[in-house]
Write a structure and sequence with these properties.
The protein is an alpha+beta fold. About 40% of the residues lie in helices and about 10% in strands. The chain is globular and about 70 Å long. It binds pyridoxal-5'-phosphate. Pyridoxal-5'-phosphate binds near residues 100, 101 and 172.
Length: about 450
């Protein structure tokens, strides 16, 4: 099950939450209760929030656009209004709404004139779009392994991956939690390489009090349906650089519409149609009315959950770096050590949690082991641009052991929708895990 399906299936009827009513819960005493997978009662007794949440405000904004007949952003006001709001809430100088998070990343690489022969540094623990936008430009994705404790790019391994061909570092705030901004950006500055932040999962996440997406040359956000701010599909670029903004605007609008000002000579000479529609912008304006409150709720609930889960042997919530002042918690990521659970496999642990009424996923598979990625070494255009020797080296460089260990053995996720619940919900998640731990010897024999 992929991340999007996971978020969809964890978002079951939660009318109570949509209407602002508390979930009805009954904590129970886990000391005396059997694990649900062994026939005991479920630890979770409430309802998970549905997603996306829809109210009158969505209908009003959408009908305004529908009835106006102005459905494209050109010459109309809804997309610019959303851009103003998004720019204000992220604290950026400029925001450009686009058709998806992928488009936001693609626009920025396009505005920088990234192309054949260029290298872009990325982590392997991410959604495939981070990789695809590089390959769409016939540039070479260079993977830097992750810090298994945080699930984020390992900043200490970036410097050795930089070459004279490195044109961009594109780290990802995975799960909505900031990567080590200080360390990554210090290395980038030292080597004069721009940073494009993949903040597609990190709406309103903060490093030292400033929203992510503001630390590099530009930041990309996704508004795909599963995201903390969503409109089915959609995305945005934020930046504090006027020239870069103009080039992004131009790239996303067929190379037209703004004074093309090149950061790199010749970069502003390509373009496409990556524009957002007025319908998407209307939904986003409505969804924005709940974003801050929901972000606070996820942040509070996640911190509470972390306090409880940290006490359970074999469960390690993903580490937040010292500079993190807020995580968006698009995913609640944690690690599982089967040794503390009588050798019970991760798959069995997930089944046992689901039986308790607590949805859980093992998350991403190891990107650098996928055929889709490895086959790039045989792509005829890549062979002609980079040569056989470089592509062979590239294939060998795909080894990311920390990422393999995380993906294949340890990673677990709860979805952002689960963090919209009550404190009791968080307590019941922790209880479910404690119960499974206590009965692990029995469960592992099933
Ligand atoms: C880390 C990351 N980057 C990029 C994207 C691409 O965004 P979209 O699906 O809106 O194109 C996503 C979306 O899932 C993502 O999670």
């Amino acid at each position: 099950m992929n991340r999007r399906d996971f978020i969809r299936t964890t978002s079951v009827a939660g009318v109570g939450l949509a209407m602002g009513l508390p979930n009805i819960t009954c904590a129970g005493n886990s000391q005396t209760q059997k694990a649900a997978i062994l026939g005991g009662p479920k630890a979770f007794t409430g309802d998970w929030s549905k997603w996306p949440l829809i109210g009158e405000v969505e209908q009003d904004e959408l009908m305004k656009v529908l009835n106006s007949g102005g459905w494209c952003r050109l010459g109309n006001k809804t997309a610019p209004k959303f851009e103003d709001e998004f720019q204000k809430c992220t604290g950026a100088k400029k925001a450009l709404a686009v058709s998806s998070g992928t488009s936001a990343l693609y626009t920025m690489l396009g505005a920088l004139g990234i192309g054949p022969g260029d290298e872009v540094i990325i982590p392997p623990y991410t959604f495939i779009a981070t990789y695809n936008v590089i390959v769409l430009n016939y540039a070479l994705p260079v993977f830097v392994d992750i810090d298994i404790e945080s699930f984020q790019i390992d900043a200490d391994k970036i410097e050795s991956a930089i070459s004279s061909n490195t044109k961009v570092i594109m780290p990802v705030h995975i799960g909505g939690s900031p990567y080590n901004v200080d360390k990554v950006h210090k290395i980038a500055e030292k080597h004069h390489v721009p940073v494009i932040e993949d903040a597609c999962q990190a709406h309103l996440a903060e490093w030292k009090g400033k929203c992510v997406g503001n630390w590099g040359l530009g930041g990309a956000f996704s508004f795909q349906e599963s995201k903390n701010l969503c409109s089915g599909e959609g995305g945005a670029v934020i930046t504090n650089d006027d020239t870069f903004y103009q080039n992004c605007y131009s790239f996303h609008h067929q190379g037209q519409g703004a004074d093309v000002a090149s950061l790199v000579p010749g970069s502003g000479i390509r373009g496409s149609n990556l524009r957002i529609t007025e319908f998407q912008a209307a939904i986003l304006l409505a969804q924005m009315t709940r974003l801050s409150e929901q972000t606070e709720k996820r942040w509070e609930n996640a911190q509470y959950l972390t306090k409880m889960l940290k006490q359970i042997p074999g469960i390690k919530p993903a580490k937040l770096y010292n500079g993190v002042t807020k995580s968006a918690y698009h995913l609640y990521m944690f690690r599982y050590d089967k040794k503390a659970f009588s050798g019970m496999s991760r798959a069995q642990f997930i089944d046992a949690l689901i039986a308790e009424g607590v949805p859980c996923s093992s998350g991403y598979t190891s990107m650098t082991r996928e055929k889709y990625i490895m086959d790039l070494a045989q792509n005829k255009y890549y062979l002609s641009i980079y040569g056989e020797k470089r592509m062979k080296e590239w294939l060998e460089s795909l080894s990311c052991p920390q990422n393999d260990q995380l993906c294949n053995e340890e990673a677990l996720w709860f979805s952002q929708t689960m963090l919209l619940g009550t404190k009791t919900d968080m307590e019941q998640i922790a209880e479910a895990i404690r119960k499974i731990a206590r009965y692990s010897a029995e469960i592992s024999k099933i």
